[in-house]
Amino acid sequence: MSTSYDCNIPETRQAGLAAAAETVRAGQLVVLPTDTVYGLGCDAFDSAAVRSLLSVKGRGPDMPVPVLVGSWTTIDGLVLSVPRPARALIEAFWPGGLSLVLNHAPSLAWDLGRTRGTVMLRMPLHPVALELLREVGPMAVSSANRSGQPPATTAEEAREQLAEDVPVYLDGGAAERATPSTMVDLTGPTPQILRVGAVSAEEISEVLGVEVAVAD
């Protein structure tokens, strides 16, 4: 049976975060608020949990799961290197609605799908998400919805779609910016915007000092 915790109330917030952390460590799924839309998450290093996440969403490994982190420094242990453009974008937009695609460290024992050696990383600007991430470490997090359905902007919307497949729902209220993150690929010779979302292409280009192309 799933349980929802109102994270706007201090007592239930702490109880919810404790339950969520225990659930993630047990290899199960949780729904958590972020600064964009609600996320469906699990331990990024638990391959079985990631497969469960994909199954609940109804999609295959051809669409790899992004990873959320709780601090800037966390990514140093997750990627092969952090290029200068990545540092500049992190300093400008993290925590916030910007996802960066980088080459992940080859030593990592994780299976996020068919990533071709890359990982998409983001640090969300939401206190509940950050507290959980700092407690349990990097989490594989996708939008909290069934494949083909709209992303949930409230915990109730997520629960209507995912129901008992998720043991713990953290309710942080309605998403303030119900806009997905902007995705920037930094694995090639030049940065490329894969999706424009919460951060505009103009803002990305201004920070990097060059006009960044948007993928077709």
TrEMBL record:
It holds the Pfam family Sua5_yciO_yrdC. Its EC number is 2.7.7.87. PROSITE patterns: YRDC. It catalyses: L-threonine + hydrogencarbonate + ATP = L-threonylcarbamoyladenylate + diphosphate + H2O. Keywords: ATP-binding, Cytoplasm, Nucleotide-binding, Nucleotidyltransferase, Transferase, tRNA processing. This is L-threonylcarbamoyladenylate synthase. It comes from the Bacteria. InterPro entries: DHBP_synth_RibB-like_a/b_dom (IPR017945), Sua5-like_dom (IPR006070), TC-AMP_synthase_SUA5 (IPR050156). Residues 14-199 form the YrdC-like domain. It comes from Actinoalloteichus caeruleus DSM 43889. It is found in: Cytoplasm.
